[in-house]
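Re: that chain you flagged

S.,

Sorry for the slow reply, it's been a week of failed gels. I finally had a moment to sit down with the sequence you sent. For the record, here it is as I used it:
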Amino acid sequence: MNIKTLTVNAIIAAAYVALSLVAAPIAFSNIQFRIPEIFNHLVVFNTKYFYGIVLGVFLTNLFSPTGVYDLTFGVAHSVLSLGFVMFLAMFIKHQLTLLVINTIVFTFNMFIIAYQLYMAADLPFLLTWLTTAAGEFGIMAVGIPIMYMLNKKLNFNELMERH
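Prediction finished late last night. Pasting the structure tokens below so you have them in one place:
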């Protein structure tokens, strides 16, 4: 990993943590309304953003009231979801389609977080899956046009690859 990739990912991770902690009361609950989940869309434009997103999730989850559960399940949710979308991106090149798929994958995979909250906080699994998925879907769906338009102006791939 070159210094630029490392630096950009450090900035993404720091922004993820800062935005999560601003909304901490609802970032760790059965709603899981994390504004920086919008950053998950960055992997659609360049897979090198993976590291900053995962590091941001890991660092944010250090502040979680469910402790090691969130470090394990939260990071696993991000790694699995991002990895699956990155795999699909090898075959699907249309960015808007990938942004929609990314939203669906992250939303569906909230069962991982629901299971974590079931284990750590004794919350009902199905209801918690519904509420965490709704929060994730809201953020990710709103993020589609935002990230798509930002990419038109900023070109996220070029920002990562430019020397």
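What I noticed first: Residues 45 and 155 are 8 Å apart (CA to CA).

Talk soon,
D.
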